[in-house]
Design goal:
single chain; alpha+beta; ten-stranded mixed sheet; four-stranded mixed sheet; globular
């Protein structure tokens, strides 16, 4: 039963979560929806079927309103992107297919290379480790937790493994932009419109004759993904899975550290997708749009308000009475998001020590409880109109997409928990790229406290641009560890002969 109370002169309906087939409410006002004909057109051959292939959204023709862009446009772009990336190309998920290159961890000299994905090679995934030669907070020696080298473990005792990839347009653009003799060398931003795509295609025709971009109209994209071992799950059928090669960590006798088994240093296993950052430029947005997705069962939300379809502002309260992947049943908000362990630069995982010299988490190498402190990238327990509006938009786009997927589509088990971008000025110029010293908050739109529970577990309360931005006066988007943290480290592609 709902109880009506008044908060800041607004009547609010208090209710527990609507469970239905997930933990996500479905009684929100329909403020961001995909029309049935439009949704049908997302699918190959206009045929909606379970786990069927979805077309990639065209980032070159992306349009929205100048001045104060329609947030729903961005959330819809992210939704279609996720469905495309998690389609199969006939053999593998698109995100693990030849459309994308895996970005390898940095070597001892701090250099990275693109690894060409093939239809037969398992994905290579890692556990986050700290790296001494990167700026503070930019521990990208391995791929994963932003701003921390904290290690996350599921309640089923699987470490979380991370992957990083870039689409072929990003890879070939980087190769040309880093070549002083290339026509792309003078570029100062990632491609974000038709002119940039034309320039990239012209470079391809002269320097990479015979190679055609598979994802040119998606402009520049980076993907960050998180995975657990599928064999540890009570039911892996609700997860998208791939075959992946991961380091084979084993714990020491007192469970105070883990190290890679020297006899069998890697293992190839089935991995289940738990989270994904979809990062891409769209027309007039060289700053990148950041959209993040999670399995609905990852973690509970802190309390948040949304607009229900009956016009009441409704409180979705904290509820952990469920077998979440990263929260114990009936776990509490108090003490949650404690970093129990950290991956070290020597390749080991060590427990965190508390002020009295004991293990930060009882038992050492153990799962910790996780709570989404800023649900939908907004302030918790905030009934203000701006927060309620953004929460409702995201609930609505999720409900619209999930309700139109065919029965049995595994992708319905994933939700977009937020997206963030900067606004285009009213004069029609391009969106600004955030910098770390100016008041960038004025330009941010969408989920301004966005965090993924599998990637920013221990650094919640900021947003992607808090780290992925430029220093004041930076000459272009390619400043080391700036907008793209790995761009400066990646070696250009080399011709096959």
């Amino acid at each position: 039963m709902k109880t009506i109370v008044c908060v800041t002169a607004a009547c609010v309906a208090i209710a527990g979560p609507v469970w239905a087939d997930s933990i996500v409410p479905t009684d929100m006002a329909p403020t961001c929806v995909v029309a049935p004909d439009t949704f049908k057109g997302w699918f190959a051959d206009d045929t909606i079927a379970a786990n069927a292939a979805v077309n990639a959204p065209d980032s070159v023709t992306f349009t929205t309103t100048y001045g104060d862009p329609d947030k729903c446009d961005f959330y819809t772009w992210g939704a279609q992107m996720f469905l495309w990336l998690t389609s199969t190309d006939g053999t593998k998920l698109v995100l693990d297919s030849p459309n994308f290159f895996t970005i390898a961890p940095a070597d001892s000299d701090g250099n990275r290379v693109f690894i060409e994905n093939t239809d037969s090679t398992p994905a290579a995934l890692q556990v986050r480790s700290e790296k001494a030669d990167t700026p503070a907070g930019d521990d990208i020696g391995e791929i994963g937790q932003a701003g921390s080298s904290g290690v996350l473990m599921s309640q089923d005792n699987s470490l979380v493994y991370y992957g990083l990839a870039a689409n072929d347009a990003y890879a070939y653009f980087l190769t040309g932009q880093k070549d002083p003799n290339s026509t792309l060398a003078s570029k100062t931003t990632f491609p974000y419109n038709q002119t940039d795509l034309d320039d990239l295609n012209a470079y391809m025709s002269t320097s990479w004759s015979g190679t055609t971009l598979l994802t040119g109209n998606q402009l520049a994209m980076e993907l960050k993904t998180s995975w657990v071992e599928a064999s540890t799950l009570a039911d892996s059928s609700t997860y998208l899975t791939i075959e992946g090669t991961i380091p084979n960590f084993v714990a020491n006798d007192d469970n105070s550290s883990m190290s890679v088994d020297t006899t069998n240093p890697t293992k190839t296993v089935a991995l289940a997708l738990t989270g994904m950052h979809v990062v891409g430029t769209v027309q007039d947005h060289p700053e990148f749009v950041w959209a993040t997705f999670e399995h609905y069962n990852n973690a509970p939300d802190a309390p948040y308000y949304y607009l229900a379809d009956d016009g009441t502002i409704t409180l979705n309260d904290f509820d952990s009475d469920h077998d979440f992947l990263f929260m114990a049943r009936n776990g509490t908000q108090a003490g949650a998001n404690t970093e129990c362990m950290k991956a070290k630069s020597d390749g080991t995982i060590a427990v965190q020590i508390n002020s009295t010299g004991g293990f930060m988490c009882n038992g050492g190498i153990v799962p910790s409880n996780t709570v989404r402190e800023y649900p939908w990238g907004s302030l918790a327990n905030d009934p203000s109109s701006a927060t309620v509006s953004n929460n409702t938009l995201l609930l609505s786009i999720n409900n619209s997409v999930r309700s139109q997927l065919a029965a049995g589509d595994i992708r319905a088990n994933y939700i977009q928990t937020g997206s963030v971008w900067t606004t285009t000025p009213s004069d029609g110029s391009v969106a600004p790229i955030p910098n770390q010293t100016a008041n960038q908050a004025l330009n941010l739109r969408g989920s301004t406290s966005i965090a993924n529970m599998t990637m920013e577990t221990y650094t919640q309360g900021t947003n992607c641009f808090s780290c992925h931005s430029l220093s004041e006066g930076a000459p272009n988007s390619f400043q080391a560890f700036g907008l793209s943290h790995v761009y400066s480290q990646i070696e250009p592609l080399q011709p096959a002969n």
